[in-house]
Amino acid sequence: MSIEKDNRIVFTLDLSGRFIFYTDGNATYRRSLENKFLRIKHIASRRIVEQLSEDESREIAEAAYSFLRSTYDDLPQDLKDSVSEALGMNYDKLSMDAAKIRDIYGGEVPIVPPDQYFPVYVQAESGCSWNRCTFCRLYKDRTYGVRTLEDFAIHLHKIKDFFGKGLSARKSVFIGDANAVNIDQKLLLQMLDMVMEEFNLPIFSFVDAITTQKRKSEMQFQEMHDHGLKRVYIGLESGDPNVLRIFNKLMNVSEAINLVNKIKGSGINVGIILMAGAGGKKYYKGHVENTASVISQMDLGKGDIIYISPMYEYEDTEYYSMTKDLGILGAEEKEKQIQELKARIREEFQDFNGRALEAPIAPYDLMEAVY
Ligand code: SF4
């Protein structure tokens, strides 16, 4: 539900009183279930996203709930009933709520795709079955494992209890962690059925271009589609063989093209995730040109989407040690590369297919990908 005042202040929260969005006229703030507060501002044509410190987060949470309490008397009775649980909410209670969700997932959820910030996250597997990309530290501390059906059933019930009435604010289910579609097909289909039975919402997941191609056929994707899987996200990052090699994404670009085309053939939509700055200054041109060429060979249409985020080079990754040789692009250079990628992908797709690319190309920031 959303409460708005003077066309300026808007507070959106779920029926359990959890903060979702707050706009104070200057910026918009989003809270993740793990209690991370993001400030989102638009300056000129740029979208600037920053994660707030704990003190700043507390200040915003208190401002939002004070706003709610100050407007309560003027609300219609049905809305009063709906927000009553939220009246006693504050930053400390939100922190306790976040501790519960970390407990359910055995730690923080490392990432969700750009349009899946508000799913019900369910963990069919823990970690990444590959876990060897040089730039990635998402699942380094997580031992890979697949849940049993019994354990998965308990997990789903814990999640349902956690959300309570707030479940109505969730519009999809995301099955994690990194490559849940790789799970043994029979077990996976049973898990999809259990998710549908509990939540009855469209299901989304990641695939990885390295191992999924070898493990799943188009027919198996069709079965997943029949059992509720609507879209999968693939962290392609780049279509340049040199960049993929230094990322240790051990695949041939034709495998990534085949993977996407067989997923599309099954009726499931795809989200392709690219990174601006991948391969640094050394591979700048190859990254733009080869990525456009690879994307043009994918059978993308209206229900698909391409996301481009600036790359974050973390010092504690193997990739970082290579950046001395590669050179790191600054923020403006990455922004410029995003624009170049967008233009080249559209041109190349048109040239290769004789039709315009209908899938939107959306910039986003990995920092926003918090659960
Ligand atoms: S496949 Fe994805 S999650 Fe796994 S290591 Fe590579 S980038 Fe990270």
From TrEMBL:
Organism of derivation: Thermoplasma acidophilum (strain ATCC 25905 / DSM 1728 / JCM 9062 / NBRC 15155 / AMRC-C165)
Pfam families: Radical_SAM
Keyword Metal-binding: yes
SUPFAM superfamilies from the UniProt entry: Radical SAM enzymes
Organismal lineage: Archaea, Methanobacteriati, Thermoplasmatota, Thermoplasmata, Thermoplasmatales
Record-given protein name: Radical SAM core domain-containing protein
Record-linked InterPro entries: BchE-like (IPR051198), Elp3/MiaA/NifB-like_rSAM (IPR006638), rSAM (IPR007197), rSAM_horseshoe (IPR023404), rSAM_sf (IPR058240)
Signal peptide: none
A GO term, aspect molecular function: iron-sulfur cluster binding
This protein's UniProt keywords: Iron, Iron-sulfur, Metal-binding, S-adenosyl-L-methionine
The keyword Amino-acid biosynthesis is annotated on this UniProt entry: no
Cofactor(s) the protein requires to work: [4Fe-4S] cluster
Domain Radical SAM core residue range list: 112-351
Transmembrane spans: none
